[in-house]
């Protein structure tokens, strides 16, 4: 009798432990409004980081899923970027990358990424390992956009200059905290050596490489805006001789200031 | 946190004093207060030749410190604890960054000694050997995973007690959102006063419920996987353990078997296909049941003793949320299977516990051929999944003591160390070392002693061969002067460097202070199988410990 009571209680316990199954998220873009909420992912990487090619693959997979709504900037810097492999012919790290490290510190491991420069609930660091990227990108994408950005770009390959016109549109009443506009030049398809699991790959194709913050690393302060007000900022940067115009991309994002620099909106556009 | 802490503390003190303090009268002379202060401060001096550069501490902060002030007060049958933690430009939490926070790192109120006891606040505890649950602090590794919650303990009789706890895991000055609950029943049975046997059985259970944020993040990640790699995770994970300590005459046996229901773990070297059909090698979530079997046997007789430990681990990564990496969010502690060596070169390569798969055994035999002579023979053997060779160690050590004159320790250690697995370095060859060492302490009188430690590492892989020398002069009980140097006598790559220290430690009563000039290589530091990357250091370190 007693045994059957125990079996009955155990059966109830087992039943009680059953959960309603969860369902996997689907990638749904918000229809309707003219602007969508995009997400900036700034990946910290280096040519001596053997796990970074896998991180880059992961980012490309996310890019395929989210398209223009995910903007990737790969920052070469820190202890995995210098010294380079002896096979490296180019210098992918730069002073702006070092400055970013000074502002945000260096992640504990590479590859790590900042997603909208946000410290998410339950996280104590702005840096996230690859296992978390997809989830937080999805979470950020679901927000209602507070700012719209339109980019117009013209280039002069003879003078090695680019004209960038960045139109901002305040979609909701901006908070009293000052906002900043950062504009970055990013280059794709750079062939140079990269350490990977199988050794140094001398023909590795680096993508989304941060070349230059043309607005300054902390951004240009935006004069306070009213609801639905539009404002245009122009930039006229030059670019280095060895940067290929066809592979250059302009990334523009609006963010708060120090100490968090959290990103509100981002867009990207190819120079050509 | 301070406001929340004040409200909680006031409420808990009021309630507990009303509810529990009636059982025991207040001490006639008031309570007992004691405190423990521990501080470590560093001056960072940039030295790019050893990699001591490129972090905020070397670039512009120049000074960093960590301080813990642990205060306790006992009265009315209650224990109160409060710990102030201060991190200033600290690289303890993240070796590459700077952490600046200060505040209440721990508080608790504890009641013991009656049938029903409790502990509220930040609680340290473990079930069995910690396989399904261990909340502990390991400051040198930056680990403090106390449970912020409540624990109840009921003592049935002198031999059996049960305890239950629930809360959230601490993360520096915040808490994770996932919930952790647990239950443990432990007992003690013996054969009577004249009997030579005893049995201490125990059973434990823990449950972790994922928070919505972690689950949504996980689902979003899994939705990017190809259908063949996708799975549906659960909010709840349950872990069970059964453990026993059996003492019979000179034999001591400990056995523990733990099981974990299907849980999501992060395989850092996982393989999956992306939508283009390419293979991605990197972090991948997997969904598996976990198990650990662990046992140890100790037997000793006059003149000799032997201990054997064995462990088999399969998919037992148990964290407060599966997205956590490195030493963050650990719920479990899986005992290590290698010797805890203390000398600089014999502890150069230490194996980290592999939570996804490990099969290990270690044996240590101790023999005393004469009253002042001890011999130790140690062997460790650790394999990974599919019998992959991870670690081997053989150590032979002889200790010869002549009381009031000298102690001479001489030994040799041979290791095989899988750097690919333990340090995540693809293509790195198996490191094979031979390390002869000698440690000689000459005591001149009751006050003065000199210690010399000399080690040599023969190694053709990784960082090559090393030599280490340490000289220590002590004037008991107050002064210890130390100079030491580690030198990569035959590097495989990079340049030869001296890694020296020179310092003095002063002790008086309950206070110990030390100052050291340090030039230290970057490396992996392990304690109890849990490892952390320790960056290169160049500068001055100051330590102070005191009790009040």
What is this entry, summarized?
The complex is a heterodimer of chains A (272) and B (548). Chain A has 4 helices and 16 strands.
Instruction: Label the overall shape of chain A.
Output: globular
Helical residue percent band of chain A:
10-25%
Strand content of chain A is 25-35%
Shape descriptor of chain B: globular
Quaternary structure annotation: heterodimer
| Total count of strands of chain B | 32
What kind of sheet is the major sheet of chain B?
Answer: 24 strands, antiparallel, barrel
Q: Note poorly predicted spans of chain B.
A: 1-27
> What do the pLDDT scores of chain B average to?
89
Largest interface: A-B, 50 and 58 residues
Largest sheet of chain A: 5 strands, antiparallel
- Derived structural class of chain B: mainly beta
Helix content of chain B: under 10%
Uncertain runs of chain A with pLDDT below 50, 5 residues or more? none
Tell me the Rg of chain A in angstroms. Answer: 22 Å
Q: If helices are DSSP runs of H or I spanning 4 or more residues, what is the number of helices of chain B?
A: 4
